[in-house]
Design brief:
By secondary structure, this protein is α+β, with helices and mostly antiparallel strands. It is built from seven helices and five strands, in the order H-H-E-H-H-E-E-H-H-E-E-H. It starts with a helix and ends with a helix.
Length: 176
């Protein structure tokens, strides 16, 4: 069998055609991907509802500050809220929520300004949490531990020194 010049040129043509197709597909993707993405208020609303539902599930076994006040049960949490707000004022941090579960763990949900703006060392970080612990301990009977949340989520640390992914017990206040 003899190879003809025509079959060699048609093979080159097919390879060139495939390469051109691959390059044009890649270029089209990068040029057009921004035009086909869209923002949807509907999708944002669904994601917001899912986040709210997850947060309510997390609080299911806890009694929030405002729920206790509405039910008429006397609660030390308003005093704790005032103490925490006063303590956090120096750090310019928002208090988003404060509630206590049945085991006596007080959850303090604050804005992430503390984590973003924290520039202290390990002793400053320890003093921050020890002071927060003592502020709550002074006004909440039955208080056993402190759980710090940032924007409704657990975080490991604010400065890289103290692990706050788990509730902080009495030992945090005894270290200083």
């Amino acid at each position: 069998m003899r190879k003809t010049r025509r079959s060699k040129s048609s093979g080159t043509f097919i390879i060139l055609l495939i390469a051109t197709f691959a390059v044009s597909v890649g270029a089209s993707y990068f040029l057009m991907k921004g035009k086909f993405s869209f923002e949807s208020a509907f999708i944002d609303e669904i994601e917001s509802r899912q986040a709210d539902t997850a947060r309510k599930e997390q609080k299911k076994d806890t009694s929030g500050l405002y729920e206790r006040q509405e039910s008429g049960v006397s609660s030390p949490l308003p005093a704790a809220e005032d103490a925490v707000r006063k303590y956090l004022r120096d750090y310019k941090v928002r208090l988003l929520d404060l509630y206590m579960d049945n085991a006596g763990v007080v959850y303090v949900d604050m804005g992430d300004e503390l984590k973003k703006n924290f520039r202290g060392d390990a002793s400053e970080e320890l003093r921050t949490f020890a002071g927060l612990y003592r502020s709550i301990e002074a006004v909440v009977p039955g208080f056993t531990a402190l759980k710090v949340l940032m924007e409704g989520h657990e975080t490991e640390t604010i400065g890289g020194h103290i692990d706050i992914s788990k509730p902080l017990g009495k030992e945090i206040a005894e270290d200083i």
